[in-house]
Design a protein that fits this description.
Number of domains: 1
CATH architecture: Sandwich
Structural class: mainly beta
Largest sheet: 5 strands, antiparallel
Number of helices: 0
Shape: globular
CATH class: Mainly Beta
Number of strands: 10
Strand order of the largest sheet: 1-4-9-6-7
Helix content: under 10%
Radius of gyration: 15 Å
CATH topology: Jelly Rolls
Order of helices and strands: EEEEEEEEEE
Length: about 120
C-alpha cells in the first residue's frame, strides 16, 4: 500500500459530498484524509453534515475506534444501550464493537468531525 509521502494541503471546497452505505436522508460526508492508497497510513478524517431527519443506522466497527466532535446543530446519538442528545461542543469516543447510531433531530444541519483509526494491538 502506498501512502502520501508529502504533506497535503487542500480546501474543503475541493472535496465532494458523499452519502456512504447505511447513511440515509441527506447524511453526507466529505472524506478529507483517507486511510489507504495515497492517504494516511491509518487515520480517516472527515466532516459530516446531516440534514434534519437524516441518520446513520445502528452499526459497530470490529477493529476501529472513532471520535465524533459536533460543531453545529443537535441530534440524538445511540451509543450502546443509551440515547443521548449531542450538540455543538459535544464529542464522543466510540471504542470497537460498541453499537452506535446517529439521528439529526434538530431544525438545522448537524455538522461534526469524524476521526477513525484502527485498533493497534501491541
Amino acid at each position: 500500500m502506498s501512502v502520501a509521502t508529502d504533506a497535503v494541503l487542500r480546501e474543503l471546497a475541493e472535496v465532494l459530498w458523499e452519502e456512504s452505505p447505511g447513511h440515509h436522508g441527506g447524511a453526507l460526508s466529505k472524506i478529507l484524509v483517507a486511510a489507504g492508497e495515497g492517504g494516511s497510513r491509518v487515520i480517516d478524517y472527515r466532516i459530516s453534515s446531516y440534514e434534519p431527519r437524516a441518520h446513520v443506522a445502528l452499526h459497530a466497527h470490529d477493529a476501529k475506534e472513532q471520535i465524533y466532535h459536533f460543531i453545529e446543530g443537535e441530534g440524538l446519538l445511540t451509543i450502546g444501550d443509551r440515547k443521548v442528545i449531542v450538540r455543538k461542543n459535544s464529542y464522543v469516543f466510540i471504542p470497537p464493537t460498541v453499537p452506535h447510531a446517529l439521528h439529526n433531530t434538530g431544525l438545522g444541519n448537524l455538522v461534526f468531525l469524524v476521526i477513525t483509526a484502527p485498533v493497534v494491538v501491541a
